[in-house]
Amino acid sequence: MHKKNDIVRLIKILNISIEKRVNNDFKKMNLTMQQIKILLYLKEREKNTVEITTQKDIQNLLGVTHPTTISIIKSLEQKKFITSKHSEIDRRLKTLHLTENAYEMTQSIVKGKINFDNDLLRGIEKNELNACIKCLNKMYENINKS
């Protein structure tokens, strides 16, 4: 029988292992896990014709501070994967857009993500995965009720 702290420890170790693996897998693209999340998020939003994506949207996506968000965005701008500009509607907001380089890169990212997901879930039956997802969602709800 697992103790509660064993579950927390295992989730933390899994999170660290996933981040290390993703960062290693995408090192050749010079991208981190956080940067990949942003690129895929922007691609999905633009595909679904969401009008604008702001720095605040990215901050909420990643669950990080404003300065951290700005740092990650600046890094993606320096790599020529995104551009940012002040919103025409509200000059206080900065909107983010993928570049052509990023569109090409996201195709490779999606392929890499599929390979990673296959490795991560190897040997896990669909019903086991569904039960795990259900438990993790319930834990998330429980921790956010407190």
From TrEMBL:
It comes from the Bacteria. GO terms for molecular function: DNA-binding transcription factor activity. This is Transcriptional regulator, MarR family. InterPro entries: HTH_MarR-typ, MarR/SlyA-like, WH-like_DNA-bd_sf, WH_DNA-bd_sf. It holds the Pfam family MarR. Residues 4-141 form the HTH marR-type domain. SUPFAM superfamilies: Winged helix' DNA-binding domain. It comes from Peptoanaerobacter stomatis. One of its GO terms (biological process) is response to stress. The lineage of its organism: Bacteria, Bacillati, Bacillota, Clostridia, Peptostreptococcales.
